[in-house]
Specification:
The chain contains six helices and nine strands, in the order H-H-E-E-H-E-H-E-H-E-E-H-E-E-E. With about 210 residues, it is an alpha/beta fold. The radius of gyration is 16 Å and the shape is globular. The structure holds S-adenosyl-L-homocysteine (SAH).
Length: about 210
Amino acid sequence: MIDSPKHKGKRKKLVEELISKGITSKRVLNAIYNIPRHFFIEYDFQDFAYEDKAFPISASQTISQPYTVAFQTEKLGINEGEKILEIGTGSGYQTAVLIYLKTEVYSVERIFELKRKAKTTLSKLKLKPKKIIWADGYLGFEEKAPFDKILVTAASKEIPQELLKQLKINGKMIIPIGDLNQKMILIKKTDANNFEKTDLGSFKFVPMLKKII
Ligand code: SAH
């Protein structure tokens, strides 16, 4: 697979579309402009890689819509050098955006096949996560906790308590909460047992499931 000026042109349009939808972070927009999303997309959907849409990937999962990736990343206010935990590696596209922002990324995926593919795609692009972990994301990744930021890309019915524990004081987590009707919740840990929660509106994600396959 190659990245070409034609792809770059399509990404420029995508960035303009994201700006029109309210994304403002220059750093996030720059990452989206530079990362070839078509590398993360199945063969059948290649031509649509730069539409602002989610698409199916292996194992009945989806690659998130670029707007959602940009939105979650922007709301976390990611700074260079931060230690980030991502739950739900999927295609690895969101992981790529985080790595592009010069962070240390630990990403957890429950489906082995997806973890394997994401690792391959990221290494083709010379984007290096700290680690991609095949495990249940409800448990976080205690070995490297606490984290500056936690970004969850699958919907949980309730806020996973273990993830709150693994957040630094003043750290932030963004997670879609709910069953059919999901709300994007931004959580700031103000001290060990206190959290500020903000509802950022409705989104649609695949469910967060415990079983590792
Ligand atoms: N950021 C990804 C989104 C993938 S969809 C992308 O843009 O490609 C959400 C992912 O979360 C799926 O790959 C799914 O397998 C994974 N997932 C669901 N429950 C999980 C859990 N408990 N632990 C880790 N990963 C989980």
